[in-house]
Automatic annotation (TrEMBL):
Cofactor dependency: Mn(2+)
Domain DHHA2 per the UniProt entry, residue ranges: 223-367
Top-rank taxon, per record: Eukaryota
Annotated Gene3D superfamilies: DHHA2 domain, inorganic pyrophosphatase (n-terminal core)
The keyword Manganese is annotated on this UniProt entry: yes
SUPFAM superfamilies (alphabetical): DHH phosphoesterases
Protein name: DHHA2 domain-containing protein
Entry keyword Thylakoid: no
One GO CC term on file: cytoplasm
Source organism: Scylla paramamosain
UniProt record similarity statement: Belongs to the PPase class C family. Prune subfamily.
UniProt KW keywords: Hydrolase, Manganese, Metal-binding
GO function terms (MF aspect): exopolyphosphatase activity; metal ion binding
Family matches, as Pfam families: DHH, DHHA2
Amino acid sequence: MFPIVKFMNAVKKTLSARWPALHVVLGNESCDLDSAVSAIVYAFLLHSLQNGEEAVGVVPVLNIPASEYPLKTEVTHWLQKHGILQNSLIFRDEVNLSRLQDGGSLRVTLVDHHVLPPADAYLESSVVGVLDHRPLDPNAPTNERVTMIVEPVGSCCTLVAEQVMAKNPALLDPVTASLLYGTIILDTVNLNPAAKRVTPKDIEVASQLARLMSPPPSSLEVFQELTEAKADVSGLTCDQLLRKDVKVATGGGLCVGVASVPLRVTDFLGRSEGGRCLAEHLATQGYQMLLVLGITITQETVTRDLAVYCPDTHLREQVTSALVEGQGGVLQLAPQECDGVESCVAFRQGNVGASRKVVMPILKAWLATRTS
């Protein structure tokens, strides 16, 4: 059994054991492949660096309820392929972070994000580390006790791999190297500059990881395998698609869901029963507005489009204007049909390199201008 699989098979025992402190490596709330693998491998690294006399428990936590794990089709596929099964994972609803916080025994490292959502703001005093590849947010922790590693690369796993190479390269057996490698390949669209995600560091780290596997992997085959797993939404309902990869932005009395779906928005809207599932999703999730970001990826092309669904016409027009004009029109939006869905506007996105990491700051800036 490979060491990282052995580590993961023991994390639930680690969680229930008595320790001077418990160190939780927490991924982001979308729990995409980058977030999940970053949390697992970085926790594995921290565990390996423990000093016997000062050892604490280290566990990765996937930041979704266990019931939503089957929605993360590329995550379930890639982890299972590497011997990490669902019953060895710890999900957010399986650990009481508030109780641990109250007991004074909690340490938290954030991976693949560096700002806690409002619902998790209480954890801020327990944050001791950050590892993220997004542009630094003005609301990021500034406490000197927080070790910040924030660098705009294509994949957080690039930064995780860099840390492993620097601190304990012996951990990079073929399984751990492959977990990281595949994630970097998916995040950077097979290291394709046209997708505007890859950086020289991603390319260098991926190359180093590939040399640790025998035979060396075909990056194209890995990319195709993971994109097919991610796009396999044939068994998902409209509501499940909206929960598959979602983040939430709040401000000015509004709660906005921002869901990424692995198909064109125009195709998604065609599955929405004339918008009925969108209205139901807003009601069940407590959103006032929903942004749906569509993407299709092949080795040759990336296409993006987006839709804004909001029953309030005034709010819909306001946020649409912000998205079209934000950051000098960086998204390059052009109107397209909404397939007859009411309370909805849709756009083709000319800047295919602008992911949700670009959309979210525009949305948050608009929310900050509102008063509740």
